[in-house]
Specification:
Mean pLDDT: 89
Number of strands: 14
Strand content: 5-15%
Number of helices: 20
Length: 488
């Protein structure tokens, strides 16, 4: 292991700015240039240094903590590990997060790797664990701590080592892909080597579709019903809840990148010979297009595809007709489903001038982007908070869906707003259920906009205090060029 160059010391500002550049240079000097190149290819950064989401490593940590019989060990600065473990328990983790501390001495001498190896051996109990995940944070990655030298398994317990530096993985959403893909790669090698365990639950008979992305629990069930007339079922979705679910997902006939940033996971499905489609069954047109794409990829007949559409589309049309949305809405977030939500809003009759997502433009969201662009929606990939806020202030929507600071900025000027992750992502999106749920959210928030005006008046004496999001108001009219208003 190479000794660190500038990787030691306080890591509090390691994710962005000059400190990130220093760590990136240190990682290259420590022999991690191939890793950084791969991360840059899979998760290209935007025009700004770093999207404003939580620490990217939280995404990988969340995936591991939600799996049964899976232990997770973090290696990074104490302040980072504290923040990550706190956030994990805030979001409902019910197990211990392992931590291997380090010092400048253990980094330089290589003892840190030995400490990690010792921790892995201590945890590798096959009666308790199927897998142990070790995650390098910024400083160990920059110092070249070689997790690839850990044993691949100990007494039947799989060892998965990944690097998730804030200076290499732009968002915590994409960090979910880092671990999911590493597990898929391991599971694919196991399948190629011989028989593997079946999932605990019963699987539908016949060809199956694997759904990529964290989604509302009812959505995979709805997808299964939509696919049934084509003789297709739904495999365990990814990220999954148990190691053996990985085998069933890889055994599917088609993978669907509902969340379009699972670049490395898609690569594993392709390596297994599985075709991949994008988007999801949202709204009337979106569902029809998705059924066409999935049916074609699965090799079913045109008659079966038509039967599936005939069974699903009338109910969706009825739901759209019964739940019209008459409001102007802006959408922003970092989940990866922002474009799907915008499509559904537009089909329901809403005016959606702007969609911002912290995730990148990929081939799996291209069809959704094209559909939205054809209807006058400006889609901003790798959106910065400043762009989202500028668009919201320019558009003055009836409802703003976005991140916590965006919601705060909207409410400060009397615009109803909802946190996308906790409110929109916590509702169904697919099929007729998605139409009704989203319409209900918009109706509830836009029914009495005067209450926000009263709130602004009530807090008016505090208006002289500094704003939490000091963004200059855009000067261009939205009817002219929204892209110019928010900046590219």
């Amino acid at each position: 292991m190479n000794a660190p160059t500038t990787a030691g010391g306080n890591d509090a500002a390691a994710c962005h700015g000059e400190r990130a550049d220093e760590l990136r240079a240190a990682a290259q000097a420590a022999g991690n240039a191939p890793l950084l190149s791969k991360l840059a290819t899979d998760y290209p950064r935007g025009p700004h240094d770093q999207p404003q989401t939580m620490c990217p490593a939280f995404g990988s940590l969340r995936v591991g903590l939600r799996m049964r019989r899976t232990a997770t060990i973090l290696c990074g600065s104490a302040c980072c590990v504290y923040g990550l473990s706190f956030t994990s328990h805030f979001y409902g983790a019910r197990r211990t997060v392992g931590y291997v501390p380090f010092s400048s001495e253990t980094l330089v001498t290589g003892k840190l790797f030995e400490d990690i190896r010792e921790a892995v051996y201590q945890l590798a109990n096959p009666a308790e664990h199927d897998a142990i995940v070790v995650i390098n944070l910024c400083v160990p990655t920059a110092s070249g701590v070689p997790l690839d030298l850990l044993p691949k398994e100990i007494d039947g317990v799989r060892i998965i080592g990944i690097d998730v530096p804030g200076f290499g993985v732009p968002t915590h959403a994409e960090a979910k892909d880092v671990l999911t893909a590493a597990m898929l790669r391991y599971a694919r090698n196991e399948i190629e080597a011989g028989p593997v365990a079946r999932p605990r639950g019963a699987l539908p008979e016949g060809p199956k579709i694997a759904l990529l992305g964290e989604m509302f629990p009812a959505d995979p069930v709805v997808a299964g019903r939509l696919l049934a007339p084509m003789g297709l079922g739904v495999a365990p979705q990814l990220p999954c809840r148990e190691w053996r679910d990985l085998y069933a997902a890889l055994d599917s006939d088609v993978a669907c990148a509902v969340h379009p940033f699972y670049t490395a996971s898609v690569r594993e499905f392709r390596a297994a010979g599985r075709p991949v489609v994008g988007s999801g069954p949202v709204g009337y047109e979106g569902t029809a297009a998705w059924l066409d794409a999935v049916g074609a990829a699965a090799g079913v007949t045109a008659a079966q595809i038509d039967a599936a559409k005939a069974a699903a589309l009338p109910a969706i049309r009825a739901a759209l007709d019964a739940n019209p949305i008459k409001a102007r809405v802006t959408v922003s977030g970092y989940e990866g489903s922002e474009l799907l939500v915008a499509r559904l809003l537009v089909e329901a009759g809403a005016e959606v001038p702007y969609v911002g997502t912290a995730t990148p433009r990929t081939e799996w969201n291209e069809a959704d982007r094209d559909w939205l662009a054809a209807r006058g929606v400006h889609v901003q990939f790798r959106a910065a908070l400043e762009q989202d806020v500028a668009a919201m202030r320019e558009v003055k929507p009836d409802l703003a869906l976005g991140t916590t600071p965006l919601v705060q900025a909207a409410k400060e000027i009397g615009i109803p707003a909802l946190y996308f992750t906790n409110m929109v992502s916590a509702r169904p999106l697919f099929g007729a259920a998605g139409v009704s749920a989203l319409a209900g959210i918009v109706a509830a928030q836009t029914r009495d906009p005067s209450r926000f005006a009263r709130m602004v008046d009530f807090f008016a004496p505090l208006a002289a205090k500094p704003k939490a999001v000091p963004v200059a108001a855009p000067t261009k009219a939205v009817r002219g060029d929204l892209a110019d208003a928010i900046g590219n």
